[in-house]
Design goal:
Largest sheet: 21 strands, antiparallel
Strand content: over 45%
Shape: elongated
Number of helices: 0
Length: about 270
C-alpha cells in the first residue's frame, strides 16, 4: 500500500538536484544552475513511495533556478540515488500548464518534461511558445528540446512569427540562438505544406528553410508564387522577406515540367 503524506496550506517540498546535463537558455529544467527543485501547492502534496512519485494539487508550481512550471496538478517521478537521495527524471503537468523562464513562456493544457532527454512536450488548445522576439503556435503538439539542441517543434497547423514575418506549415522546427542572452530564432525548417505571406505575395511549397537573420526562405517542391491574379509555378524558389523579392527556378520534379510556368492576367482597360 502506498504511504501518503499530505501537506496543506501552501506546502513546501525540496527535492534533490536533477541529473547534470548541459544547460541551455530557455525552458530547460535539466541543469539550470544546479540546486533543488522547489514544489508548492495550495491543496497538498501526496507522496506515493511505492510508485516513486510526488503529486502536487491545486495551483501547483515547480521551480528550479529561473524556470518555473505551473499547473493545476504536477506529478514528479523520481529514482533513488546511490547516495540515498532522489533524482527526478520526469515531471507531468495537467490543467492550465505554463512553463516560464526569464525570457520564454510556453502554454498548453497538459504536458510532460523528460529530464534525461531535456524534452518538454505540450498538448491541448492554444499551444504556443513566446520568446522576447518570436512566437510559435501549434495545433497538435509543441515540443521544446533543451540541452545542446535548443529547438522547438510545432506540429499541426504550425505557425512561426519572427521579426514581423509569418511562416506556416504542417510541421515547423525552430532552432534558437542565445548569443545575445535572449532565446531568438535563428533558423526554421518547414515541412508538410509551406505558406509564406508578404505584403504583396502568397508563396506556397512542399518544404522550406527560413534563415531568419538573412530573411531568406528557400523553398522546394511545387512552388507557387501568387501576386493578385498572376501566378508563377516552379520546382524551387527563394523569397527575401526583407526586400520583398522572389525568385523561381525550374528543375527536376516528379509529374511536372522542369521549366518555370507563369500565368499573367493583364489589367482590363479602364472604362
Amino acid at each position: 500500500m502506498a504511504i501518503r503524506h499530505w501537506l496543506f496550506l501552501a506546502p513546501l517540498l525540496l527535492l534533490s538536484p536533477l541529473s547534470g546535463m548541459a544547460t541551455a537558455a530557455g525552458l530547460d529544467l535539466s541543469g539550470n544552475g544546479g540546486g533543488p527543485i522547489e514544489v508548492l501547492a495550495d491543496d497538498g502534496i501526496e507522496w506515493e513511495q511505492d510508485k516513486k512519485r510526488f503529486i502536487a494539487r491545486g495551483n501547483a508550481r515547480a521551480s528550479r533556478g529561473n524556470v518555473i512550471t505551473s499547473a493545476d496538478i504536477l506529478t514528479a517521478y523520481y529514482r533513488e540515488t546511490n547516495g540515498g537521495g532522489t533524482d527526478i527524471h520526469r515531471l507531468e503537468a495537467v490543467g492550465d500548464v505554463r512553463i516560464k523562464s526569464e525570457t520564454d513562456t510556453a502554454y498548453g493544457d497538459a504536458g510532460y518534461y523528460d529530464v534525461d532527454r531535456a524534452l518538454l512536450v505540450l498538448t491541448g488548445r492554444d499551444l504556443r511558445l513566446e520568446t522576447a522576439t518570436d512566437k510559435i503556435y501549434a495545433r497538435d503538439s509543441l515540443e521544446y528540446w533543451g540541452g545542446t539542441v535548443n529547438a522547438a517543434v510545432a506540429r499541426g497547423a504550425a505557425r512561426a512569427v519572427s521579426q514581423g514575418k509569418t511562416l506556416e506549415a504542417g510541421i515547423l522546427t525552430a532552432f534558437f540562438s542565445d548569443k545575445t542572452g535572449k532565446n531568438e530564432i535563428s533558423e526554421v525548417k518547414a515541412e508538410g505544406g509551406v505558406t509564406v505571406r508578404t505584403d504583396s505575395e502568397v508563396i506556397k511549397a512542399d518544404n522550406g528553410l527560413y534563415d531568419v537573420k538573412k530573411g531568406i526562405v528557400d523553398l522546394v517542391g511545387n512552388v507557387r508564387i501568387t501576386r493578385g491574379k498572376n501566378q508563377l509555378n516552379g520546382a524551387r524558389g527563394q523569397v527575401n522577406l526583407n526586400t520583398g523579392k522572389s525568385r523561381l527556378f525550374g528543375g527536376a520534379q516528379t509529374g511536372s515540367s522542369s521549366r518555370v510556368k507563369g500565368m499573367l492576367v493583364p489589367k482590363k482597360p479602364t472604362e
